[in-house]
Design goal:
Layout lengths: L1 H29 L6 H22 L12 H17 L1 H9 L3 H24 L11 H21 L8 H21 L11 H6 L10 H18 L3 H4 L6 H24 L3 H4 L9 H8 L1 H10 L11 H17 L5 H13 L2 E7 L19 H5 L5 E6 L7 H10 L3 H4 L5 H4 L8 H6 L4 E5 L9 H8 L3 E3 L26 E2 L2 E2 L1 H14 L4 E6 L35 H27 L4 E7 L6 H8 L5 H6 L3 E8 L11 E2 L2 E2 H12 L5 H9 L3 E5 L2 E4 L4 E2 L8 H16 L3
Helix pairs in contact: 1-2, 1-3, 2-3, 2-9, 3-9, 5-6, 5-7, 5-9, 6-7, 6-11, 7-9, 13-14, 15-28, 15-29, 18-27, 23-24, 28-29
């Protein structure tokens, strides 16, 4: 209803714009001073925006919000008024040209400063509620960055506002992109996200794009910038005594200086120390709000290289690796139970199936969502699981590839540092990983992801890791087709079922069973599912599968971004995953071959920080953050694993060591690095970007002095040797 009313307001504004524009053009023509083509081109932008806003309104794309009643009523007249200023730019030029040169230059620089301020607002206003509230250092830094970049284009473009239009488009794009990233993932754009644009575009059609009234106001800010640029023109801003040739050369020189200063501001080392720009990666959006987008983005970019541990040498890392491997060999590696598992592995070589389930997590851990939500029941109660528990990860609401990287290679981003996506950044051929390790034991290895092969560079990464085969969406017959009414079909052309965001979990399990039936040799299958991928406002869950949970007292609170519909769309996906897992385990029980199954979620959905912040206040930041930086896992086998006396053992872990725990459990050969991982677990249970969980169940930061600080340091040496030195 609101969207349609907004569309009507903008339609009225469009009619007023057309009427006033036509009237002005005809009047000027009758006076013998027709409006120039350049002025008409500048003025066209307001009409295009009013058309877009009208269409979006009637199409239901404009949401309600804090400024719901006022935004259209303010923005529509503002756009009309800005258009009228632009139409009269030539008269303003005449007046300014008649003034003193010094005054003209003050007007010119005043307009450039105004455009700089508008540029900051273009970047910050659409997504940040703290715009203008962060410290003056960040304000001046961001203003200097945008102004110097604008000045370069303006001066090199011979003082035409049109030449600086490229910066307006860039700043507006940043604000709009960050608006949607926050809306969909409750996250900030990070430098390495630029390396994953292909993946982002591939899944972009799974989100519903709407704008709230705050974003509508942002369109007025962008068009105000258009108005300012339209008033910048060399016909009035130069001095009368400047020769044209000399002026061009001087302006070009000034532009180059502006670009150099801008580059220097970007490249000056250590933003975190020099400008006190901070970043805590567990909730980066908060720091982007506090410090501005550009300063924080640059600080994160500077933090991208893999950090070498203090006092690192290859010799010390080799000593640490050997010592920890020896501790494993003399400890749990020498136990009777493990020796039984080793003998069994040598005899039967069980097939290993790993399901990395998209966005799977048990939200009942959030106080039952305060509505008696019990979580995925089969997953939680499977009686003969080997291990299950919380799985601490480095990503939230996205970044699936990092959980993949950590599981397959055993390397933790906690030691590598934040802001990195190894799939997009590094050549991974030199790294040890599970595919190559099991392949050396005679396993046939296959990776599976029912979407574009190029997502997160998987078509390049999987062969580099040594997988024999990669099954992408084409292996499932391609994407589902459209029905005549525009809806998607419920199966792929290959006959695999579709649920929510893609091929269903069960569809991938069916394909795995086909692979096992076709080859009796031991196999390693790594399945990255697609079903539960966001967004969670697709409104495509069948009624008989839709859950109905309503957390008490949350949706009356405007700080909660998620609606009950989005939460229940997500929970319905988890319920469907639980049903599919039960079916798959049942099918594996029937097989006359040994199979080890590892099932885990890669991250939580983007909505969980709302519940965490509202329900768990007064905690220290590290403990608080870890509630949203964990998923869940289980390990199960359809055969009696030798030496595994206890079933369904509850055990916290982090995703980097999960594969190593599984290989140890089935008795597979381990590398010295993996032995070091297991030896370190006697003191450190889990590690991620934000800290590590000690044996005392207390979280520590890497910089913090504590009882396990030396164990953490020794493992950082071991990982740098195993990973960073090879990359």
């Amino acid at each position: 209803m609101f969207s349609s009313l907004a569309g009507l307001v903008f339609l009225v504004g469009l009619c007023a714009y057309i009427s006033l524009t036509v009237r002005h053009v005809l009047t000027q023509r009758s006076l013998g001073t027709p409006v120039s083509r350049g002025t008409l081109m500048w003025n066209l932008w307001y009409g295009l925006m009013l058309i877009a806003l009208s269409v979006w309104g009637f199409a239901g794309i404009i949401d309600g919000g804090v400024f719901a009643p006022l935004a259209p009523l303010a923005v529509a007249p503002a756009l009309v008024a800005l258009s009228q200023v632009t139409l009269r730019r030539e008269k303003l030029f005449e007046r300014w040209a008649a003034t003193e040169p010094s005054l003209r230059h003050r007007i010119e620089w005043g307009l450039l400063l105004l455009f700089g301020l508008l540029s900051v607002l273009m970047i910050e206003w659409p997504w940040s509620w703290a715009v203008g509230l962060y410290g003056p250092t960040y304000w001046w830094l961001e203003l200097a960055l945008v102004s110097l970049a604008t000045l370069f284009f303006y001066l090199v473009g011979r003082r035409h506002g049109a030449a600086a239009f490229v910066t307006l488009a860039f700043y507006a794009f940043i604000g709009i992109a960050q608006y949607f990233v926050r809306k969909f993932k409750n996250a900030a754009i990070m430098p390495n996200d630029l390396l994953a644009l292909g993946t982002a575009m591939a899944v972009s059609d799974q989100y519903t794009y709407t704008i709230d009234p705050r974003a509508v106001v942002g369109t007025a800010i962008i068009l105000a910038g258009v108005c300012v640029l339209s008033l910048l023109h060399p016909c009035w801003s130069v001095r009368d005594d400047d020769p044209a040739r000399g002026r061009v050369g001087l302006d070009t020189g000034k532009g180059v200086v502006s670009a150099a200063l801008c580059a220097a501001l970007v490249l000056v080392p250590n933003y975190m120390k020099l400008f006190q720009v901070q970043i805590m990666y567990w909730y980066s959006i908060s720091y982007y709000e506090k410090q501005g987008f550009l300063p924080t983005f640059i600080a994160v970019w500077q933090d991208m290289p893999i950090h070498k541990p203090d006092n690192y040498t290859t010799e010390e890392a080799e000593k640490a690796t050997a010592a920890l491997a020896r501790a494993y060999d003399e400890g749990i590696g020498a136990s009777d139970a493990h020796q039984q598992a080793v003998a069994q592995f040598d005899e039967i070589k069980p097939t290993v199936v790993v399901i990395m389930n998209e966005s799977f997590s048990d939200l009942s851990e959030f106080d039952g969502l305060r509505c008696d939500y019990q979580g995925p029941q089969f997953f939680k109660t499977l009686p003969d699981a080997l291990y299950r528990g919380r799985l601490f990860v480095d990503v939230h609401g996205g970044g699936t590839c990092n959980s993949e990287f950590e599981f397959l290679t055993g390397n933790s981003l906690g030691y590598m540092g934040a802001g990195k996506y190894p799939y997009s950044t590094f050549q991974l051929d030199p790294l040890d990983n599970m595919a190559r390790q099991l392949g050396a034991q005679g396993y046939r290895t296959a990776a599976m992801h029912p979407n574009y092969a190029s997502n997160w560079n998987r078509n390049k990464v999987y062969p580099a890791l040594g997988f024999d085969e990669f099954l992408d969406i084409e292996a499932f017959g391609g994407f589902p087709q459209r029905n005549l009414d525009g809806t998607k079909q419920t199966t792929t052309p290959g006959g695999y079922p579709i649920f929510h965001s893609g091929v269903s979990d069960q569809g991938t399990y069916e394909r795995i069973l086909d692979m096992l039936a076709a080859d009796d040799a031991p196999q390693f299958v790594f399945d990255v599912t697609m079903q539960n991928h966001g967004s969670y406002n697709q409104n495509n869950i069948p009624e008989d599968k839709l859950t109905h949970y309503f957390p008490t007292g949350t949706y009356e609170d405007p700080t909660f971004a998620e609606t009950p519909e989005r939460l229940n769309e997500y929970l319905s996906c988890i319920e469907e995953s639980d049903v599919a897992l039960e079916w798959f385990v049942g099918e594996l029980r029937k097989l006359d071959r040994p199979v080890m199954l590892v099932f885990f979620g890669d991250h939580q959905p983007s909505m969980t920080p709302d519940y965490n912040d509202a329900w768990y206040q007064g905690e220290d930041d590290l403990t608080h953050s870890q509630r949203v930086y964990h998923a869940n896992y289980l390990m199960w086998a359809n055969y009696d694993v030798a030496g595994a006396d206890q079933r369904s053992t509850e055990m916290d872990a982090s995703v980097d060591v999960l594969g190593t725990i599984m290989l140890h459990a089935i008795g597979a050969p381990l590398t010295d690095y993996q032995k070091a991982q297991l030896a370190t677990r006697e003191q450190i249970k889990a590690t991620n970007l934000h800290g590590y969980l000690g044996a005392d169940d207390i979280w520590y930061t890497p910089e913090q002095e504590g009882p396990y600080a030396d164990a953490y340091y020794q493992m950082s040496l071991v990982e740098y040797l195993n990973c960073a030195e090879r990359l």
